[in-house]
Write a structure and sequence with these properties.
The chain has helices at 4-11, 14-44, 73-76, 86-95, 99-105, 110-117, 126-141, 159-166, 171-185; strands at 57-58, 68-72, 198-201, 204-207, 213-217, 223-235, 241-245, 263-267, 272-274, 287-289, 301-308, 313-319, 327-333, 344-347, 352-363. By secondary structure, the protein is an alpha+beta fold. It folds into two domains: 57-74 and 196-363, Sandwich (Jelly Rolls); 79-185, no CATH class.
């Protein structure tokens, strides 16, 4: 057999051989350097952006909501806004001969039944009448199972309702089933609720505007530096995007506290609220506005929150656009408020569309100061 490569090599000019050898050597060096850069980047992890910690870990992979838990208030309770046709609903509950209306009529306070019988959308007490009705119906929803085969024999059940019914649920899942049953019984009078209010959209955690609720971390945190990029897309009715810290994790089957009973930081401009049981107000001296911010809420902002549950302290800084030097916007200090618990994004009300991405957390940070303001 003839070795053609050897034959060709013997005829190749010496200068060509030298040039080819140098190019091969250069290519190998370039590859080694590139590989080193790639490995270094992988070791640095998600926190290798300028001015951010290299020890931070990601809380959101940009593809799934793994590691997060959703709670939609409207999934297990009824709000006044969930009654889409108050006059028709009041009429059925007052005079309806169907089994479900008869059942509900027997669960209403006499004063509520009297207000419904005289209901008019233009009357002065129309809003109060619906509020009182909602209160009574939520007691029904949170109570024992309302399903009875004869009672719902003429009601067309959605697949979700039928699926949950077969599971014979308890706790909050039972409340969800009761709510679904009422929505199916009054399809023209009650809005359809959803058990999910957040999706992944364009690499971001995006609220869908379905209703008031939260999405919170599956893990609890004590002392940490939280970093994320966010923007408020739109709202009708409008409200600032909200982050909750020092939250109370609901136990299995337990009704969650509203906003998880946490401390609310409104991003990016620094509004705030205290949702702790017995509080539910904008707070007092525990909140300290540092900078009177006027960031564009619709533009992307990079946010840093440094929190310590043991001390009950939290500080927030915002950079807009991301990559700029941040400014400190809001401080919080109340030792009694500090709580080891989940972190949450809050959808304050239906009709809100917010987006969060590039979410990282550094546990027990060595630098006990805001790093994005430096």
């Amino acid at each position: 057999m003839i070795d053609f490569s050897a034959s060709v090599a013997k005829k190749e000019p010496r200068e060509n051989v030298i040039m080819r050898s140098e190019m091969n050597h250069l290519s190998r060096r370039a590859l080694v350097k590139l590989a080193g850069i790639t490995v270094a980047g992988c070791v640095a992890g998600v926190g290798n952006a300028e001015g951010e910690s290299a020890t931070a870990v990601s809380l959101f992979d940009g593809k799934t909501l793994d590691g997060w838990i959703q709670i939609e208030n409207s999934a297990t309770s009824l709000g006044s806004g969930g009654i889409t046709d108050p006059a028709a609903f009041a009429g059925k509950l007052t005079n309806g001969a169907d089994a479900v209306s008869v059942f509900l009529r027997g669960r209403l306070e006499d004063s509520v039944k009297a207000d419904l019988a005289a209901y008019s959308a233009s009357s002065a007490n129309a809003r109060a009448a619906i509020s009182a009705l909602v209160k009574d119906l939520n007691q029904v929803i949170s109570g024992p199972p309302i399903y009875d085969k004869a009672r719902f024999s003429n009601v067309v059940l959605r697949p979700e309702t039928e699926h949950l019914l077969k599971q014979n649920p308890g706790g909050q899942q039972l409340a969800r089933l009761n709510k679904l049953l009422l929505e199916d019984a009054y399809p023209g009078e009650l809005a359809k609720s959803s058990s999910t209010g957040w999706v992944v959209k364009g690499g971001a955690m995006a609220s869908t505007g379905t209703g008031r609720g939260v999405i919170y971390t599956a893990k609890d945190y004590s002392r940490y530096r939280l970093m994320f990029t966010m923007r408020h897309v739109s709202g009708n009715p409008d409200h600032q995007a909200c982050v909750l810290i020092f939250c109370s994790r609901p136990q299995p089957g337990e009704k969650p506290l509203d906003a998880l009973g946490g401390i609310q930081f409104q991003v990016p401009n620094g509004g705030h609220w205290d949702y702790r049981p017995g509080m539910n107000n904008s707070g007092g001296q525990e909140f300290t506005p540092v900078t009177k911010a006027q960031f564009d809420i619709h533009a992307w902002s990079r946010v840093e929150i440094l929190a310590d549950a043991a001390k009950g302290t939290a500080r927030m800084a915002v950079a807009q656009p991301p990559g700029n030097k941040a400014v400190e916007v809001l401080d919080f200090k109340d030792a009694a408020a500090g709580k080891v618990g989940p972190i949450a994004w809050q959808m304050h009300n239906a009709g809100l569309f917010d987006e969060y991405k590039d979410v990282t957390i550094e546990l027990d940070p060595k630098d006990d100061d805001l790093i994005t303001v430096k």
